[in-house]
Amino acid sequence: MEKTDYLEESQSKKEKIILIIYSFYTLAMSLVTYVIGWASWILPFILIGMAVAWWISIKKYRTYRFRAFCISAIALFNFVIYGMHSQSLPPILSTMGALVILLGIFNIPQIVHLAVAASLFLMIYHGFVIRTIHASAIEDVVRVILQIVSVFTIECVTYYLVKTHIDVNETLVSTIETLTIAEQSKDDFMANVSHEIRTPINTVCGMSEMLLREDLSESAREYTFDIQTAGRNLLSVVSDILDFSELESGKMDLIEEPYNITSTVNDVMNMAVALKNNKNVELIVDCDALIPRNLSGDEQKLRRVIMNLVSNAIKFTREGCILIRFSARKEEYGINLTVSVKDTGIGIQKENLEKLFTTFNQVDTKKNREEGGIGLGLAISQAIVKKMGGFITVKSTYGKGTEVQFVIPQKVLEDEPIVTIRNPEKIHAIGYINMEKYDYSAIREGYAKSIERMAGQLRVSFRLCRNLPELKRRIEKTNYTHVFISWEEYCEDKPYFDALAEKTKVVLILDRENDSNVNRKLFKIYKPFYVLSAVSVLNGESVVQSIDSNIYANHRFIAPKASVLVVDDNIMNLRVVEGLLRPYRIKVFTATSGREALQKLDTMEYDFVFMDHMMPEMDGVETLYHIRQKQGNYFKNIPVIALTANAISGAREMFLSEGFADFVAKPIELSVLERVLRRYIPEDKIIKVEEYETAKKEKTKLYSEEKKEHDLSMQGINVQQGIIYCGGLIEDYIDVVSAYYKTGLHKIQEIEDSYQKKDWKNYTILVHAVKSTSLGIGAEELSEMAKALEAAGQSSDEAYITEHHEAMMQEYRKIMDVLKDNIITEKTEDTSGDTGAAKMEDTSEGYASEERGTEKQIGKDRLTELFTQLAEQLDTFESTAVEGLLKELFQYEYQGQALRTVLSSVEEKAEAFDFLGAEEELMKLQEKMR
Known about the structure:
Largest sheet: 7 strands, mixed
Protein name: Circadian input-output histidine kinase CikA
CATH superfamily of the largest domain: Histidine kinase-like ATPase, C-terminal domain
Radius of gyration: 41 Å
CATH architecture of the largest domain: 2-Layer Sandwich
Main location: membrane
Number of helices: 35
Region (Disordered): 829-859
Distance between the termini: 64 Å
CATH class of the largest domain: Alpha Beta
Domain Response regulatory: 563-681
Number of domains: 6
Shape: flat
Enzyme class: transferase
Strand content: 5-15%
């Protein structure tokens, strides 16, 4: 609670206590005045005073100090009226003392002074005006003096206590303020630490993610995966420290949002495989097939808890197995999700079980000194589970193993289970796993129970055999649709299973290191084997399991017509976001500052914006404020999503309160990114991968039908290498070849003209373009010849150019002739008009509603700035950035000329990937426009 809120609440309570007691006194005085029959105006006067006091308090009129003086003055005045009509002073002195103590609760010394003044007035009035103080006997004099002294003593003591209380309060307030400043400093420090550490981690994890999508060697893929795993482990340590800070301050908050439990399970399994590495430990996963797929809760913290338990189990288990169990029980509010992690590790002694969740270190540091970790995992896990409304339990036998289980309530959004068999009645599966090969009974029991439960929940026919002869005997008698075996069983009789794979689906469950020695016709599932991978095979789907950041990677949609502006002052972060968005085919535009973002928003419409928080000059919050201040519904409604490494508790609420549409923390989790993309990309721009694949098959059907007559291999061109350069997609390769052919027709003439004029500067630029574009389509020999001529041009070796020019041109013309007669070029030429139209429509996305002739005027300074940026991007071959800058320039005209027309030659060369040629054209334009 804020300090001001606490003070206001405390003051309000004081007022109520004083007014309630004062009201009882007032009612008592009213009763006395009525019974004795005092003047008629006294009773209404006293009651009106009480009503005014309540009204001032209820309305919170002005300040607390003002209200306190008003209430005290009214109470004292009413009491003075009452005292003036009393027939004797002593009876009212006790009441006076009580009233002084009551008003002292206000903690205002001046009010005690008012009470003293009222007391003196009544004493003078009774002693010298109406003379009710009688001194007929010494006893009466002493009694009156004692009563007066008692009243003044009470007033003095009250004054002293009030002053002391004020001094103590001031000291406490000062201490609280100091602690608040210290707490704020700590929060600021943690926020800065979070930002500064998460930013490079974002680069490490993001860049390794993009590398893993490339065509790497197996060893390079493993090294890259290890780098990414190390980055994520570092992120886990940072997150533990931040969570611990939140726990201490009581600021840990839950973020409830929809999530897919399938992704959570897959990510946990992926991380578990990475952590296990080469340990001789069997990882068994028993996942309930009937768990509802779409739930609502804090998925990020749920994943943290599971990973904490799994990583602990892996750390302290040297051999045996780790059994991870996911299950659910339906309740009125949704489900109780149960996750259990059981291991055959070192276990925990009974005396250490009690402090397992209360100390922030490993319970047996001597024995576990070689294990990593900072000892926060279990304590944080317990706090998160309690925050979610669940509970966590631990069972352990020292030297034999530990089982940690937690249960949390989760809301169910859809009852559809995580997996479904399409035609279970058509599946007849058989499996052979020799359980006796495992030394640990826990492994045998774990596999047996998980397989039995899996078959029962999926409602498929499945029989498990104990040995190879039994398997062969049953296969001879019955036709099975699927045969499941593991690596050791496969090695018992490889020829038999290889032959069996010719007529039925043989599914091999194996570790990654055994992958290279397997017949390609066998279906492969990498361990851990569980219900998600099993159902994929049974449904006839491909199980994408490779060493990467998401073993079961599955981008289920693309959005090639969507556009996003990413704003970040860190160039590496921009590249990471571009790479993560690339599989979704989204057009990505970037800005390195808030000011640049505002300029780009003025020239183009985006579907949404990713905005970094901490940027120099103008941070993300200030940039958002300026966006919303612009005129038009577009600027009022465009979703701006905070993209920040500041992941401390309360950050999300802060960003949402500032007007951001959503919040994404760095490093970016792919599941979170996909959720945000689905939420903010317009539905009509989202294309399901299934639909895209169907369209792609239709597009390439024509080529496959005529493949016998026109093979894709072409003389002088390494087609397969060219397809690899184009991301492995044949349709992209076809587009590149078509553009190469169309631009090559006049490129030959340009080279010849430069050669005849001995314009070696332009000649060098032109052959450089031939070198790069030829290599891009797989014309490797032509590329090498052009490379040599480029080097000669740069060193002014005219003799070499003269000797080898004609040979290169002959090879260039031969390549053009090959392309002209090939089925690829024929098909692209047949649809060249449509393709060109499609390209034009694509490159002008966001401006289709603008008519020609409505371009805005651009100033010379802004044009020079954009030309400079375009030259830089051309120089570094950044095709996406070049496309975005051209789009921006196409919206303007300069000195009466539409830049769309002026820059057509630059666009043409850039589309043909002739970036140096495009840069040369741009330089010519800059010279003309000076």
